Amino acid sequence: MLDISVNIKGLKLENPFILASGILDENGYTMKSILDQGAGAVVTKSIGLEDRTGYRPPIVVEVSGGLLNAVGLSNPGIENFGEEVKIALKAGKPLIGSIFGSNTEEFLHLAKKMESYGVMAVELNLSCPHVKGFGSEVGSDPDLVEDIVKELKEKIKIPVFAKLSPNVTDILEIAKAADRADALVLINTVRGMSVDIYARKPILTNRYGGLSGRSIKPVGVRYVYEVKKETGKTVIGVGGISDYTDAVEYIMAGSSAVQIGTALYTEGKEIFKRISEDLKNFMKAEKFETVEEMVGAAL
Ligand SMILES: Cc1cc2nc3c(=O)[nH]c(=O)nc-3n(C[C@H](O)[C@H](O)[C@H](O)COP(=O)(O)O)c2cc1C
Q1: What digits encode the pLDDT tens for the residues 248-269?
Q2: Scanning 17, 48, 136, 271, which has its CA 20 to 30 A from the CA of 163?
Q3: Which fold has domain 6-50+70-193+216-294?
């Protein structure tokens, strides 16, 4: 019997395909619609303490093989987000609340709020590459990462996922610091930049941005493989997945589930149904009965 459901530390997903944070997930209705259209789960936009407008446009630019973005963690703030969660939860599927803060107290406050709103897990954004004082600035400090994860594991009941940055010298040091997390999410965007050669200046107002999409897939697969091999931890892979072959690569490198972001812009929401069907056909042809059997097959 072919079964593509997965279980991530008690979080049951009908398929291993999750919407990544930051793409069509600031609004309850769009999150619900993506779940209704076949996503196994949705990660919300990263939410902080206060509402933020983010950077002035241009905040996204298309580059070969993907997108470069510096949105600036724009979000409505945690107090205004409960209503969106409530709407998305009507889909009856898992919602994962992404949060960002600059210290342990902020993360704890945000995680408790998300838990009270009814999300089934929290994902810590320790990896946004383009906002001072948040994201990868927090996520590249192993002591701080360890403290945040420890505190949350002690004080909240739902699973805690730590989303790490590829923009560090030694990912294993950070992965080990986040050891108490229920799963590690790898990777956030890769720091990059694009120049307008006629204006003779960087295109993004923030100058630097985060690269996503097809071009970063080999980077993501490598991080997943390395972290899985060295730590044995549960890993959720993300970066450049746009069809079932990309997903299977990530799974065989050690991912227990995968997230999809940028491909939503090119493939539409229908990607979730199609990729589940294609995965089933692949598993049938290759004689796999469960996703679990494929996890880490390339290790
Ligand atoms: C426009 C945009 C906004 C994003 N916002 C967030 C965010 O708020 N929090 C976060 O953890 N990751 C954010 N990401 C990163 C994605 O969740 C994902 O890690 C990355 O894009 C790689 O996956 P992909 O190639 O499938 O897009 C964002 C990515 C894009 C393109």
Answers
A1: 999 999 999 999 999 999 999 9
A2: 271
A3: TIM Barrel (3.20.20)
Determine the residue of 51, 184, 187, 262 to mutate for testing ligand 1's pocket, defined as the one with the most ligand atoms within 8 A of the Cβ atom.
262
Low-confidence ranges of the chain (pLDDT < 50): none
98 lines ligand 1 (CB under 6 A): yes
pLDDT at 298: 98
Does the beta carbon of 204 lie inside 6 Å of ligand 1? no
So what's the pLDDT on residue 137? 85
* Atom 4 in ligand 1: residue holding the nearest Cα: 22
C-alpha 167, offset from chain centre: 15
Domain range annotation of the chain: 6-50+70-193+216-294
